[in-house]
Design goal:
By secondary structure, the protein is mainly β. The chain has 2 domains: 120 residues, 7 Propeller (Methylamine Dehydrogenase, Chain H), CATH 2.130.10; 114 residues, YVTN repeat-like/Quinoprotein amine dehydrogenase (Methylamine Dehydrogenase, Chain H), CATH 2.130.10.10. It is built from no helices and 24 strands.
Length: 244
């Protein structure tokens, strides 16, 4: 198995999909047996699976979102961005089924019911514990894509955003070295410890108890849910080999 760039699974059909070394797409059963191996035309960074057990979606470095049938039919390009894909999600709820794909220029929201596409200027996206609740973060706004799809909050500039799976809080970061924790969109923020460089990635653990961030200079920090720092790691040089 090569370097894994992304992974997703569908418990309905007991299949997991991995993206390895860019173009290799591999489908596994839950016993670890290889079910199928596919090859994309360009380097793929993201894979997402919805409720449809016969379909999954990928986003590649050429800006394309592709639908891949598991029944062997030819994959189909759904959306084309001018830049490489930076995020990909399937949102399915009472308000419909949507494919949300982002690039550095913004995000396209594809309505699978009528194939309409809407463009929004945003930088990142995230879900809380409900797969129907999608949050997208733009330069100064966070949008909530719930049943009414109209709620918008004005915040400071946002480069990274993550929502806790239990829906109790979220974290954001801008161009600086610090992340901020908020329990609601209207509450004051708690500033977390600075990293040694600008924050490039920010995430919350599956049990909502831990927050992790990484910097452009190779430092990572982990906090508890209450903002207490528990781990900090920086890049280190490989020790020189010595002969005995």
């Amino acid at each position: 198995m090569g370097s894994i760039k992304d992974c997703n699974f569908n418990p309905q059909i007991e299949k997991a999909i991995t993206i390895e070394n860019g173009r290799a797409i591999k489908i596994w059963d839950f016993n670890g047996k290889l079910f199928d191996s596919l090859k994309a035309e360009a380097s793929v960074s993201f894979v997402s699976i919805g409720k449809d057990p016969a379909l999954f979606f990928t986003g590649d470095d050429k800006g394309r979102v592709t639908a891949w049938p598991l029944n062997g039919y030819v994959p189909r390009t759904l959306i084309a961005h001018p830049k490489k894909i930076t995020g990909l999600r399937v949102s399915e709820g009472d308000n419909g089924r949507f494919i949300i794909s982002s690039s550095r220029k913004g995000a396209n929201v594809l309505n699978l019911a009528d194939s309409s596409i809407h463009f929004y200027r945003m930088r990142t996206l995230a879900f809380d514990g409900n797969p129907a609740n999608l949050f997208t973060a733009g330069r100064h706004r966070i949008r909530y894509w719930g049943s009414n799809m109209k709620r918008v909050w004005q915040l400071c500039p946002i480069n990274n955003f993550s929502a806790a799976p239990d829906g109790s809080y979220f974290v954001t970061s801008g161009k600086g070295r610090s992340a901020r924790l908020r329990e609601t969109f209207h509450s004051s923020s708690q500033k977390l410890d600075k990293l040694n460089g600008s924050i490039t990635t920010l995430d919350i653990s599956g049990n909502s108890q831990f927050i992790a961030a990484g910097s452009a200079k190779g430092e990572t920090k982990i906090w508890k849910r209450d903002g207490t720092l528990i781990q900090s790691h920086s890049n280190f040089k490989r020790p020189a080999h010595t002969q005995g």
